[in-house]
Every structure is written in C-alpha cells, then in structure tokens.
Amino acid sequence: MAEAVWTTLALASLTTLILLVLAAPLGWWLAHGRSWRREAVAALVLLPIVLPPTVLGFYVLIALGPASPLMVLLHPFGVRTLAFTFWGLLIGSVIYSLPFAVQPIRSAFQAIGPRPLEVAATLRASPADAFFSVAVPLARRGFATAAVLVFAHTVGEFGVVLMIGGAIPGKTEVLSIRIYQLVEALQFGEAHKLAAALVVFAFLVLFALLVIDRRAGAPRP
Predict the structure, then answer these.
(1) Of 33, 47, 176, 184, whose CB is crowded by the most CB atoms within 10 A?
(2) Residue ranges of the domains in the chain?
(3) Given this model, what pLDDT does residue 209 score?
C-alpha cells in the first residue's frame, strides 16, 4: 500500500509541475491570441473532459506502444515502449489533466485586462518581461487553483492510468487502482480505509478552492 501512495504522490506532483509550466504560455495565448486557430486549440485542450477516460487511455497506449511512429523514433536510443511504465503513466496523466490547468490560468489572464500590460509597455518592458513580472504575478490565484485541481484530479485518476500503466506494484499501481483491487479481492475493510482517506482529501481540496475563490473576490484594502 505504501508503494501505491508514493507512486500516486510522485505522479500527481510531477504532473502538476509539468502542467503549470505548459499551461502558462498556452493559457496566455488562448486568453490573448487573435489567431483563428485559437478556438480549435481550446477545444482540443478541453477534449479530455468529455472523452471517456478509457478512450483517451486507449489512444495514448497505442501512441506509446512499440509500433507507433513516436516510439519508432526512440528505438535508436534504446526506448521501445513507454506503455506500462511510470513515464508513460506521466504522459497520459499530463494529457488527461491538461484542461484543469489551462482553464483556470486562461481565465486569470483574461481577468487581468489590457491596462497593466499597457503600463508595462510604456515603461519599455519587453513582452517576456511584462509576462513574467506583471501577468504571472497578477494571475497567481489562477495558478494556485490550477495546481490544486491538477493534483487532486491526478490522485483520483482511474480509467486512464489503468489503460496506460496497468497495475504493476511499485511502478504503476496508484491508489485508485489499489482500491479497485481490494474490492475485487473482497477486502472491504482495507478498501474503506483508502476510500475514506480520499473522501477527506477531496473535501480538503474543495475547501481550498473555495478559500482561494473567496480571497480572489475579496476587495483589496
């Protein structure tokens, strides 16, 4: 059980860090870009929300299999497949939780408005300087919300991680899969302990999100 806990925490932590880095420029472009491609990209980002997890997991599994064009490119480096590995699990988790990172950050960037960036431009700040020194700090609550949502969503993943990683103890077995296995084995007592812990965790996540939202809406002194 301890191995499943550590695998889950490692997966959730790495997924959160990666998505915060990826979602920042993507959320900014979706919030302020003028390209006709923006809505198509936004729909693609949101796709994991409406797709059944098993469907998404199936296609990611195929993409990470030894016969896929992506893996063929990695064959000379000794990598034949990432299916049923922790790193494959991480790739699938990043894709599955992408909308939960991009949407809060995009909304936070949209809420800033053009005025702070116009002021930064008058002070001769480059676009990169304005982004990192003005936009990102002003959108910090969006980043906080994204981090909480992604971490919690990753902890609760089941269908995607089962399709991509299976349930290899110490490698790809996470808490949600462990609960399923305990129920299959009729070990309801152990399953109850893990399930109850995740219920408490879910409550704390929702409480944290409500606190963030309340502080975001509170008037500044």
Answers:
(1) 176
(2) 2-216
(3) 82
Mean pLDDT, all residues of the chain: 87
The length of the chain, given as a count of residues:
221
Q: Is 73 exposed, middle or buried (0-12, 13-18, 19+ CB in 10 A)?
A: exposed
Burial class (CB in 10 A: 0-12, 13-18, 19+), 14: middle
- Taking 3-state DSSP, the helix, strand and coil percentages for the chain, each rounded to the nearest 5, stand at 80, 0, 20
pLDDT digits (tens, 9 = 90+) for 109-133: 988 887 887 788 787 778 888 888 8
Decide: 173 and 3 in contact? Cβ < 8 Å. yes
| Nearest residue to 98 (alpha-carbon basis) of 156, 148, 146 | 146
* Distance between CA atoms of residues 173 and 9, nearest Å: 11
Tokens of 129: 């300087």
Q: Which fold has domain 2-216?
A: MetI-like fold (1.10.3720)
How many other CB atoms are there within 10 angstroms of residue 79's CB atom?
Answer: 13
Q: How far is CA 194 from CA 5, 11, 60, in A?
A: 10, 17, 28
